[in-house]
Design brief:
The structure holds two protein chains of two kinds.
Chain A (H helix, E strand, L loop, with lengths): L4 H13 L10 E10 L2 E10 L8 H4 L1 E4 L7 E4 L14 E4 L6 H12 L13 E11 L9 H14 L19 E10 L2 E9 L6 H21 L2 E9 L3 E4 L1 H6 L8 H15 L5 E9 L6 H15 L6 E6 L7 H9 L6 E6 L5 H9 L4
Parallel strand pairs in A: 8-9, 8-11, 11-12, 12-13
Antiparallel strand pairs in A: 1-2, 6-7, 9-10
Helix pairs in contact in A: 3-5, 5-10, 7-8
Chain B lengths: L3 H16 L7 E6 L1 H9 L10 H15 L3 E8 L4 E6 L4 H20 L10 H19 L1 H12 L43 H4 L2 H19 L9 H8 L4 H22 L1 H20 L5 H12 L8 H18 L3 H6 L3 H5 L8 H11 L2 H8 L2 H6 L2 E7 L4 E6 L2 H12 L6 E9 L4 E7 L7 H15 L3 E7 L2 E7 L4 E5 L2 H10 L3
Parallel strand pairs in B: 1-3, 7-8
Antiparallel strand pairs in B: 2-3, 4-5, 6-7, 8-9, 9-10
Helix pairs in contact in B: 1-4, 1-11, 2-3, 4-11, 5-6, 5-10, 6-10, 11-13, 13-16, 17-19
Classes of the chains: A alpha/beta, B alpha+beta.
């Protein structure tokens, strides 16, 4: 059999990347495969190009399902299309529920966006060992016994040997049935990093904008966590003044009033100075705003702060500008104009959900 | 082709399947590793298919699903004579058994179900031909150009008439005016009568009605097409000003659409039937004690349900089992239907033993729509906890709407009608007397996805070359959306306009 899938596959990848057939770009969507992490469902982006068809507006359709619950029970969010079977001889597929660990998520992300590995600064020569459960073996301590596997082996043995009584289905594992989790040691260079998230929470930043920031920062965090053992995260919000907050507050606060960006940069610089020496830490300040600043004078002050205080200690300074109805979007222009020669500064505009992946790539694609 | 152990198993399962009365094309099994099976699956089972990026896309999705352990393909079978089926090399022996038994179920269905009777049984060869033809066009006209045309064609590949293969077509109509034939003046037929009886035998009303009918028929003849055409692809192939290579691509895409259509038309039945037989063959004949647990694990995996999605394997299997039981026990017909004593109904058993015979008949003449319509009973809905769901715009979630079996059935039938796709017809190929194309969406209470509809119109225009229009309903309004090659124009179809048209019509 001559198989030429590689050609079609690379052509598809090229279209997704936007190097060819640019008019198809608007049909690209990142549908998801659903994996599970603990109790949470996480999604793995799978790029899809959906050629337009005459079809029903999905939300209007509704459909038929199977399961428990009285009328009104929610069964899924409105983002996903209903389960419409595509034409063609679909091969039978098993949907398996698996746990996707944070490491795997990061790997998926890295592969999707072709992110480079980060070469960390700091204590390069200290190696730490970390165990990870990767398999199953027949011997081990009771505390690591894999209950389900053991049960299955015992059940199999009892059925084969005829000692299984379906009237009284008691399964008693013997020693040969037992299965245990096995782990592998993995070596990591030990290095520490800190992310300082700063966000503008002035009146012009709405829920939509914050949602963008939340999604983006989740992925940034996931990726950096895969690159560094010890990752600390600090959160700063600012309007006319800045203060440090916990994660919950960070994503949910909404203030009104003006915006003085330099206040956040000052606070950030103070935190770094007091707690994170650049010799030992890889430092990643991220700032999200809609691009409005109080005055040109303050913008000048921001430039000065960045140049003198933040750039020298950071691995990378990232500025993400989300689009809002009220913001002028001026700040990113100022940054690019005055600091374009600074390699340490990365700016990116996030105009909507579809921009998130590209923007993550902007930020993390440098490998710093 | 198969290693000796699998070859032995195949012989065994084939024997059992035949003994149960399954009647199938010969099956050729191939063993592939996961990469191979993903490749073949990406091409819809036809490794020799024409090159196109969407197969690469499918491959991307399948490989990712496999790699991250989210899903895996475990059976694939092609409707062809002989049937081709693919096994995953990494599967355990018991899995291979399940798959083989399942495959024989599918093959029996392909061969015997009437909706498959018009499919090309040499499709593997035909697909290879398509591949060669498109490859040749690519070499001659360039990849970009051919690919763009394929994309435009795929955008309308669902505009076919699923009943078309069963319709006997009349010969191509030629315009009579072109033949120089005079139009015959309208004359209603009169019966012979004596003068004084004439008013009774040929009443004036009847004559007027006859003349009106003839006039309408004449009007129709002038229309193009005479009646609305659901097979939009066929209409385009016959009447668009296409290059030959374009026409060829459009027709081979249409051919593939028709080939795959019965599989979508019988998804629930086909999977149900195959699952019925793999479970029957495995549990009654093939299963060794040591394999029981793995079998049960995988079988239940196949039948797993999630809220919000109908699992065709599960629903199909349970319906076939239900039918078999009902016909074995005589739970059908007037007497049973009219019995309103629940206790009596519960223990109703006439010991007819007609179940097996009945399900073989069902697999022969039904498709999903008639299958559900005929055999989905109130008891079944209740037992299997079926419900309808709807979108709640306040919470942004889908939620369970109702468990009433009539509503479940209606909704399910709606989602199966035309495969849950809107009905689109060509109503006028010479719209405004300017060679423009007018399509009509037969509105069934659910609107079209607007952005998609507009982009599809653009693709249609690139094929028809002249402006194209679509009549549909947006919200409450009847609208006509048109694309003339430059911009989208949307206009309400006003009542005033309709009246004007009426006034202009010759009376």
């Amino acid at each position: 059999m001559v198989i030429k899938i590689e050609k079609d596959h690379s052509r598809f990848r090229q279209i997704v990347k936007g190097t060819i057939r640019k008019n198809l770009k608007k049909y690209i969507s990142h549908t998801e495969m659903i994996g599970r992490r603990g109790k949470e469902l996480v999604s793995i982006p799978v790029p899809q190009i959906d050629l337009p068809h005459f079809k029903y507006g999905q939300k209007e359709v509704g459909g038929v399902g199977q399961g428990d619950g009285p009328p009104g029970t929610p069964i899924g969010s409105g983002d996903q299309d209903g389960g419409s079977g595509e034409a063609g001889n679909q091969p039978g597929e098993h949907l398996l529920e698996v746990e996707v660990s944070i490491e795997e998520l990061a790997e998926i992300l890295g592969e999707e966006l072709e992110l480079p590995r980060i070469e960390p600064r700091g204590k390069k020569n200290i190696i730490s060992e970390k165990g990870r459960y990767t398999g199953i073996r027949r011997v081990g301590p009771e505390s690591l016994r894999h209950f389900k596997r053991t049960y299955r082996e015992a059940l199999k043995r009892q059925i084969v040997s005829g000692t299984y009584n379906h009237e009284r289905p008691v399964i008693i594992p013997v020693r040969e049935d037992k299965r245990f989790r096995a782990w592998k040691e993995q070596q990591h260079p030990e290095s520490n990093a800190v992310i300082v998230y700063m966000m503008d929470v002035s009146g012009s930043m709405g829920d939509e904008q914050k949602e963008l920031v939340r999604i983006e920062s989740f992925w940034i965090e996931t990726w950096l966590r895969s690159q560094y053992d010890g990752l600390k995260i600090r959160y700063i919000i600012h309007d006319a003044t800045a203060r440090e907050v916990d994660k919950e507050t960070f994503y949910h606060t909404r203030e009104s009033g003006g915006t003085v960006i330099s206040s956040a940069y000052e606070l950030c610089s103070r935190i770094i100075k007091q707690e994170y020496s650049p010799e030992d830490w890889n430092i990643y300040p991220f700032h999200f705003s809609d691009g409005d600043n109080w005055s040109g004078g303050d913008t000048a002050r921001c430039m000065k702060l960045l140049k003198e205080e933040l750039f020298p200690v950071s691995n990378q300074f990232s500025y993400g500008q989300v689009k809002s109805h009220y913001g002028s979007g001026q700040f990113i222009k100022d940054l690019n104009q005055h600091l374009s020669e600074e390699e340490i500064l990365v700016t990116s505009e996030i105009n909507g959900k579809d921009d998130i992946l590209r923007s993550i790539k902007d930020f993390l694609g440098k490998g710093r | 082709m198969l290693p000796p152990d699998l070859s032995e198993i195949r012989e065994e399962i084939r024997g059992h399947a035949a003994a149960y009365g399954l009647d199938f094309f010969e099956v050729i099994f191939h063993i592939l590793d996961f990469k191979g099976i993903n490749e073949v699956a990406a091409y819809g089972g036809f490794p020799t298919r024409y090159p196109h990026w969407r197969f690469g896309m499918e491959y991307d999705r399948l490989s990712k699903g496999y790699k991250y352990g989210l899903q895996k393909i475990y059976e694939m079978v092609i409707n062809n004579d002989p049937c081709y089926a693919y096994l995953l090399s990494a599967n355990q022996l018991v899995d291979q058994k399940i798959v083989m038994a399942h495959v024989y179920g599918h093959c029996d269905f392909f061969k015997n179900n009437v909706w498959f009777s018009k499919t090309n049984r040499k499709m593997v060869d035909e697909m290879a031909n398509h591949g060669v033809r498109i490859q040749r066009y690519i070499e001659r006209y360039g990849l970009e150009k051919v690919e763009a045309f394929i994309d435009a064609s795929l955008s309308i590949e669902n505009l076919i008439d699923y009943h078309a293969p069963f319709i006997q077509r009349k010969g191509k109509q030629t315009s009579r005016a072109l033949n120089g034939e005079e139009e015959i003046p309208l004359r209603a037929k009169r019966f012979k009568s004596k003068d004084y009886m004439n008013d009774f035998i040929n009443p004036q009303e009847a004559i007027d009605a006859e003349i009106r009918r003839l006039q309408e028929a004449m009007e129709k003849k002038k229309q193009f097409p005479e009646t609305p055409q659901k097979d939009v692809l066929r209409f385009l192939i016959e009447h668009s000003p296409l290059e030959n290579w374009e026409r060829d691509i459009l027709s081979l895409i249409r051919e593939e659409s028709y080939y795959f259509a019965p599989q979508a038309q019988t998804k629930i039945m086909n999977e149900g039937w195959a699952t019925f037989w793999h479970s029957t063959i495995m549990t009654q004949k093939c299963l060794k004690d040591s394999e029981l647990i793995d079998y049960a694990d995988h079988h239940s995996g196949t039948l797993g349900t999630r809220p919000g999605v109908i699992n065709p394997y599960k629903v199909g299997l349970e319906l076939f089992r239900d039918i078999e039981e009902r016909w074995n026990k005589g739970r059908f017909g007037k007497e049973y239907e009219e019995c309103d004593n629940i206790a009596e109904k519960k223990k109703w058993d006439l010991q007819l033993g007609l179940g097996r015979e009945k399900i073989f008949e069902v697999r022969k003449i039904y498709n999903d729509i008639t299958f559900i319509d005929t055999f989905l009973t109130e008891e079944f809905c209740e037992k299997h906890k079926l419900f309808t769901y709807r979108f709640n715009s306040q919470t942004g979630m889908y939620e369970i709407a109702d468990r009433d079996y009539r509503k479940v059935k209606a909704k399910l039938l709606f989602s199966l009608t035309n495969f849950g796709q809107p009905l689109i017809y060509v109503v006028n190929g010479n719209y405004r007397n300017r060679g423009e194309l007018l399509l009509k969406h037969q509105h069934e209470g659910v609107g079209l996805k607007q952005d998609y509809a507009r982009d599809t119109l653009k693709n249609l225009q690139s094929i028809w070359r002249r402006p194209v229009h679509l009549e549909t309903i947006v919200g409450e309004d009847e609208v006509r959306v048109g694309f003339d090659g430059k911009e989208i124009v949307e206009e309400k179809i006003g009542e005033a306009e309709e009246e004007k048209e009426k006034a202009e019509a010759p009376s």
